[in-house]
Every structure is written in structure tokens, then in C-alpha cells.
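User: For documentation purposes, I need each entry recorded in a consistent format: the amino acid sequence on its own, followed directly by the corresponding C-alpha cells. There are two entries in this batch. Please keep commentary to a minimum and don't merge the entries.

Assistant: Recorded as requested. Entry 1:
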Amino acid sequence: MNFLVVDDDERVAHLLSKKLAPYGACRIATDGERALSLFAEQYDNGEPFQAVFMDIKMPGMDGHEVVRRMREIEAERRNDVLESFKLVMISAFSDTKNVCKSFFGGQADAFVAKAEIKNRLVPELKAIKLI
């Protein structure tokens, strides 16, 4: 499996990458532009990401905007609806507004608070049948 981890905090990105390593290859982007570039590159190479782990609050382009653009790229390039990537939103914030926006606006499959990554990430991925 191919995973994309997007977080402006490199410590969090590396923690996620380490937790995901037993399940697949991880690419890391620390900003929205780089994330979009990697996302498009993987599609163009015929190896789209099966899951994207997206921080919500980032400088410049926030996670919601990055996801919106990724979904546009995906819609333009995919041949099959089943190719749609799983989206796991990651944030230090657990406020209702951002969580709702993630699920309904970005079609998120799961939400994990950064403080709970060590304990909640793997159970959430199992719950959405990603691993």
C-alpha cells in the first residue's frame, strides 16, 4: 500500500510514518503544495495512494483545501470509483466544526486527534478496513 502523510509538524509526520510502516510505504509532505504534487505524481505513475493522512491546520493552504483539490485530481484521473483514497484527518483540534467539515466536506473516513495517534491510529485503520 502507498500512504501519503501531510503535516507541517515533521515530528508528527514521522510518528505517523513510523506507525504506518508495517502496513505500507509512506511519503511525507509538510505543506499543501508538496502534497498535491506528490498526489498527482503517484496518479501519473499509475500508483495512486490508497490513503491520505491529512493535518487540518497548516500554514498557507489548510488540509480541507488540499483534500478538495486532491478529490478534483482523483475525479479527473481515476477509472474506477473503487480507486478513491481513504482519508484520515489528523489534528490537534477536536472541535466539532473541523471534525464535521472533515467528514462531510472532505469525505473523511476517520479522524484521529494528534494526542491519540499512538493509541488510536491502528484501531481506526482497522475499523475502516484499511489494514
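Entry 2:
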Amino acid sequence: MHKNLEGASLPVTQPECDPNTDRRAWPRLLGFKQDEHGHWIALLSCGHTQHLRHRPPWQSRAWVLDAERRRQQLGQPFDCGWCRQQVRLTDKES
């Protein structure tokens, strides 16, 4: 089993998150940065980050390669895998 090397997930209680029908929150996309390899990373309102690679056919995110299209995504809801994982763990404990 692979170990997650990223820090522990933060609670999903940020005021800028919108509730979803399955009790998850949708963090907002706040900005972008690049890693040492030039891959784009999304900065999310929940405090998490997510790589946004465009590697068709597995990852189709052509918009991340264009500065204007990245700008258009700012403020949009973003499905955070770290928050989703935290909700799954919480549901199992209930």
C-alpha cells in the first residue's frame, strides 16, 4: 500500500467551501504555482494542493497549459481528493 507523503488533511470547515449533496465541501480554486518540474499545482481554499497535469489520455486538462484559461478557473469549486479521503474516513468511523 502506498503511503501519502503530504501532511495530514485539514478539517473541511472552511467558510469559503460550499456544501455538496453528499456532505462534502467543495473548496475553491484560489491560485496556481509550479513545482520544480514545471507542473502546475492548484492552491485550494481548504489548504490542500493538487497537481494539475495534462497527460492525455489519462489526464486531460489542456486548460492548465493556457494562462487565460487558468485565470478563468480561479474561484471555481474544485473536487479536492484529500478532503474526499477525509470524508470517507469520517464516514467509516460513524
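Summary note for entry 2:
Helices lie at 67-73, 81-93.
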